[in-house]
Amino acid sequence: MRPGLNNLVEYTKAARFEKAGDKERLGAQSISEAERVNLAVTIGGIRMANPVTTGSGTFGFGPEYAPYVDLKRLGAITVKGTTLEPRLGNPVPRIVETPAGMLNAIGLQNPGVEAFVQDHLPYLREIGTPVIVNIAGNTVEEYAAVAGRLSEVGGVAGLEVNISCPNVKQGGIQFGTDPVMAAEVIGAVRASTQLPVIAKLSPNVTDIVAMAEGVAQAGADALSLINTLLGMAIDVQTRKPVLANIMGGLSGPAIKPVAVRMVWQVAQAVDLPIIGMGGIATPEDALEFILAGATGVAVGTANFVNPRATVEVIEGITTYCVKNGIKDINHLIGWAWKR
Amino acid sequence: MFSCSALILKQEKLTNDHYLLTYLAPEMSQRARPGQFVHVRCGDTWDPLLRRPLSLHGIDPEAGTLSLLYRVVGRGTERLSRLSEGECLEVMGPLGRGFQLIGREAIVIGGGIGVAPLLPLVQVLIRQGIQVTVLLGARSQEGLLAQEAFQKTEARVEIATDDGTFGVRGTVVDLLQKRLESYSSVNPGEEAKRDICVYACGPVPMLSAIWQICQSGQIPLQLSLEERMGCGVGACLACVCRVKVVSNGENQKKQPAQFGVDAALTSQDWKYARVCVEGPVFWGKEVILDATRPE
User: Fold this and answer.
1) What is the ipTM of this complex?
2) Is residue A165 flagged as an active site residue?
3) Mean pLDDT per 10-residue section of chain A, whose length is 339 residues
4) Residue ranges making up the domain that contains A23
């Protein structure tokens, strides 16, 4: 054993194993300053204690991350895409790592809206953090039916309408890349719920602003930007596509610049709050989206790499505000083009 | 379950592409059970991005250490192999469902790097007073891993290599058949089959062959599976495998006619289970392996 290593061994053994959440980054004086920073935001009527939620499909239904994160601390929890009927999902391989990112083609595996309401919603209600349910469907009617069901059960703060999933044969991206169909879906959901409706847009379009304007007119209360970018990978050994679904959605730090650009464009053109997402892994990433015009941010793929990424982003945003004399996070929204 | 920075105590190069990494994590070592895994970061940058799931090869709660036997297969594990003692390992775990200890006699079968989760299993089985036979297999002598460690236990160890450069020429499947024959000659009758359990980890074709033998002989079997993994905690649904849907004990009717040939199964007969949470260890009778998938 290397000299000095033994001291480290003794130190590690003696130390109580801290749950990383106990780690206090700010000094005693700054803690009271941090408490005075307003992090609360409102997104389409959803009141969040801070701007941070989770990327749908990266956080399960919540309990999966409970050993690592105090779920009460999140601004909201956005859960896995839910459809009217249960979905098996795609065959494996469902994911492949790519430079600074990954492709996924899960195929919306989910237990269906009834099982969600019975088996998962009670747990989520207990936490008290606003729950945003991502919804998907094969047809406009299915979207409306899921939205209607979730509106009557209580405990759901808002619906994120997934018109951008690249991994299913029907629905999903078909709706998200055609402005007319996108508006039709959002209109149908709007008509079947009183809950806030968030349209999750696909980046796989030429004109993201036109898509955003379309769903805004159809009655969306907010926008989620962006879903994954359609991509693929080929295994040079087998000379075949890696994913069983052939194509999949690209996520992770690799897509962040694309996402920031789209938030920047849409925020200036459309008067709806935006939840920015796409490669957010650090507080600085999240701040970039806020400065570009996002009111909320979602941490997605980064949860896989760092299960505490969400709370670290919240802590880091707080520290940034304290250090820079920002009293209210809302002042930073769109700063990059507003000031 | 913990997520922490653990101190690396040792990084040994065993062969050209196999390493044994030992790290200090007292609480994790106390909770860890054979068959469980940990999810490790291979560096501190975003590329390569994802963690790598690695089986626990050594569990020593007294020393507070855990060790990982792994093969360098890509950029992530290559990065991992460059970490050295005194550095930190970002690690989550212990994760997943490990092996269940049953019966009075155990046959533990490892192929290639598949031996990794089996060493702590053998140690615990022996401590429980269960009689253990270990069957190790590889293409040739160079591919045999950890055989000395298994030989140090009280288990009886048999080795097969495809090319006969070490042990018997053949496969672990041949060894299993022989072992089961001698077991049933000493312990005749259907009842005796409940006192034995086969545990296996290795390449899918090997697992398929073992599955077939155990299925036809009605021998309890536990398999440790591997799949491309994302989160490691059951959230992302990337690492799934197919398991039979059992309803009202009618599962006998729904057994696939032949292993690996499951075209007759409809989605009502099976569902996807998460390898990271419901596994990585599954009962042979519940899992449907895809034998046709290339390695």
Assistant:
1) 0.90
2) yes
3) 63 51 51 84 98 97 96 97 94 96 96 96 97 94 96 97 73 77 94 97 95 96 97 96 96 98 98 98 98 98 97 97 96 96
4) 3-338
